[in-house]
Hints:
Distance between the termini of chain A: 84 Å
Oligomer: heterodimer
Radius of gyration of chain A: 24 Å
Helix content of chain A: 10-25%
Shape of chain B: globular
Structural class of chain A: mainly beta
Shape of chain A: globular
Number of domains of chain A: 2
Number of helices of chain A: 4
Mean pLDDT of chain B: 90
Number of strands of chain B: 9
Radius of gyration of chain B: 21 Å
Amino acid sequence: xxxxxxxxxxxxxxAFAGCVKDDxxxxxxxxxxxxxxxxxxxxxxxxxxxxxxxxxVSGGGGAITNLVVKRVSDGVAVTEADKxxxxxxxxxxxxxxxxxxxxxxxxxxxSVMNSYRDTASVSLTVLKGSGSAWGEISYHPSVRxxxxxxxxxxxxVDLHAGLVYDAAGVAGHEAEVxxxxxxxxxxxxxxxxxxxxxxxxxxxxYPLFVSWSAxxxxxxxxxxxxxxxxxxxxxxxxxxxxxxxxAYRPGSVSGQSKFAYTGKVVxxxxxxxxxxxxKVIRTDETASGEMEIAVKIQK
Amino acid sequence: xxxxxxxxxxxxxxxxxxSSCEKDxxxxxxxxxxxxxxxxxxxxxxxxDKTYTxxxxxxxxxxxxxxxxxxxxxxxxxxxxxxxxxxxxxxTGDDMPDNWTTKNTTYFFMxxxxxxxxxxxxxxxxxxxxxxxxxxxRRKAKDVQVGQVWAFKTQDGxxxxxxxxxxxxxxxxTVTFKVRTK
Lengths: 299, 182
C-alpha cells in the first residue's frame, strides 16, 4: 500500500513538473526614433538647446513596467526620469524632451524593463555645439496665496502664467494648476510646504484635488532648496533659463518640497516639462497664514 | 489486480497532463509562391491572414494586399509587391492583377530591425507603425533576403512588420515570412 502511495505521489510530481511554463525567451525592444524633429545621434547642440527623443518600445511578450532615462555628462550619470508603468498591450510610443547641458559630451541612455524583469537599453550621444541657446523666461515677481486654512486668499497657482485661483474660480482651470502650499509640523518642525495636485498627500489639505480630471505633477528639487544651493540674489539675476535648467537635480525631486521658508529658492519642473525657480519672498508658519513667492519659468 | 490499479491511476494522470499542459504559442509563418509556382499560392490578405492562388485572389481582390513574384533581370529577384504596384509582364491570363477592378496598394520600407528585435514585437505595438517610413516607402520589397525586416502599410491603413525567414529564388520560388500587425 505504501508503495502505491509513493508511486502515485511520484506521478503527480512528474505531472506538475512537466507543466511548468517557461518564461518567454524574448526581451523588450526599445528604439530611438530618427528624422524630422528628433535629436540625432552624434548631433551637436549648444548648451541650453532643446533635445527631443522619440522612443518606441515593445514589451517582448511581457508588459512594459519601467522606463529610465539617464544623462551621462562627461562621464557623470544623472537619472533624469524613472517612470513606473504597466503597459500590457500596444507598446509605448513616447517623446521626451530635455535641455542640453554644459558637458562636452552627453550620452543619453534609455532603458526599459518588462514584467519578466527583462531589460533592454539604447543610447545616443549629443555633442556640445558652439555658443549657447538658453531660452527666454517668464517672470512673476509676486504671487500671493493662502495656506490651507486661509479663507481670504486663493490657493492654486498656475506657475506658467503667474495666476492664482480659489476653490470657486478654479473650475475649468484645473489643468493649469501647478502648485499649492500648506503648513504643518513634521516631526515637530514647522514646515511651510509646496505641493502639487497630483501629489497624494496634498489631498489631506486640499481634498478637492481628488475630483479634478487633470492633476498636474510638479516636481520640486528639495535637495537644492534644503541646501540653499541657489540664493535669492542668484534668482534675481537670472535673465534666461540657464540657472533654471542647471539648478534642477532630477535625482532629488518630489511632488512636494518641505521647509519652504522665507528666502528659500526651490527649482522645479512642471508637468509639461518647463524648468523654473520659486523664490519664497515671505511665508507664515501657520495653517491660516499666507505665502508670497516669485516665479521664473521657461517660456 | 495490481496492474489494473496502476493502469487506473496512470491513465487519468496522463489525461490531466495532456489536457492541462499549456502549449507554447505558435508563431505562424506565411509562405507565398512566385508566379510559376503551381503548388504554393502567391497572394496574401493581411487582414484575413489568408493566402490565395491567382484565380482565388481575382475573386477576392478587395482583401488582397500582397503578392510574390520573381524577376531576375531587374534585380527584383524574389520580391513582394501588391496588386496596385503596377507589376507588368509577370502574371498572365484573365485572372492577372492587371485585370482586377480593385487593386490594393501596399507600401514597403526595409527597416534596420534584426530578427531578434522582430521577435520582441507584439501585434498591436506602436513600434510597428513608427517603423514605417512613409517618406521612403516603395511599392515593392525588392530582393527579399532572409533576416530582413520590412515595414509595410496596406491600402486600408494597416501597418505591419514582416520578417523573411526563407527565400527560394526562381519563378517557382517562394518567400516565407512572419508577420506582426497593428
